[in-house]
UniProtKB/TrEMBL annotation:
Example of a GO biological process term: heme biosynthetic process
Pfam families from the UniProt entry: Flavodoxin_5
Keyword Oxidoreductase carried by entry: yes
Organism taxonomic ancestry: Bacteria, Bacillati, Actinomycetota, Actinomycetes, Micrococcales
A GO term for molecular function: menaquinone-dependent protoporphyrinogen oxidase activity
Domain of life: Bacteria
EC number: 1.3.5.3
The organism of origin for this protein: Leifsonia shinshuensis
Name of the protein: Menaquinone-dependent protoporphyrinogen oxidase
Gene3D superfamilies: 3.40.50.360
Length: 176
């Protein structure tokens, strides 16, 4: 089973998630490549695809959106899973009483559900370090109203990520 994990990351948090997913799949005996969406041209020849992106202002990164657009037929014809690295903080529900992970779904998920019929679409908590931010991200994240909803830190839940990846491996390569 050749599996591609394609990701779009701006500051590295999503890259870390993609690499961890790749490691879990490899440990489960799958042949895996973990690559940046920007670096991928022809993606034929894989048996399954996992595509992930950081979410900024409710949207996937442009590189991930372009990747899906370019490869929609190939992706739709194979088992595909999507993940998003988004909400920061540890709250389970937001101030409107909505599930934080549900509320953080990128706008693209509903479109991709119809286009790709993914076997799973998962939002993971993300991470950011204010010192690493550049340009308008830095100004935006420092605004008092935004600081409350964007606490800085690393909130990635590795056991959750690993168990999601393990369930994909089991689905692709059931234990005999
Ligand atoms: C300027 C800015 C905007 C963000 N917008 C969102 C958002 O709309 N929804 C969300 O869930 N997370 C948002 N986040 C959190 C990031 O998605 C999170 O930090 C992510 O893990 C970053 O991944 P990366 O390091 O791979 O780019 C935002 C972060 C910043 C700095």
């Amino acid at each position: 089973m050749r599996t591609l994990v394609a990701y779009a990351s701006k500051y590295g948090a999503t890259e870390g998630i993609a690499q961890r997913i790749g490691t879990v799949l490899q440990d489960k005996g799958l042949e895996v490549e973990v690559r940046r969406c920007e670096d991928l041209d022809d993606v034929s020849g894989y048996d399954a695809y996992i595509v992930g992106s950081a979410t900024y202002e409710f949207n996937w990164r442009k590189a991930a959106r372009r990747f899906v657009r370019r490869n929609v037929d190939e992706l739709a014809a194979h088992p595909v899973w999507l993940f998003s690295s988004g909400p920061v903080g540890t709250e389970q529900v937001d101030k409107n009483g909505q599930d934080v992970l549900k509320a953080a779904e990128p706008k693209q998920f509903s479109t991709y559900a119809d286009l790709l019929h993914p076997r799973g679409m998962q939002v993971f908590r993300g991470a950011f370090d204010h010192e690493k931010l550049r340009g308008s991200d830095r100004l935006f994240a420092w605004m008092p109203a935004i600081r409350d909803i964007l606490p800085q830190g690393d909130f990635r839940e590795w056991p959750v990520i690993e168990s999601w990846a393990a369930s994909i491996a089991d689905e692709l390569q059931p234990v005999r």
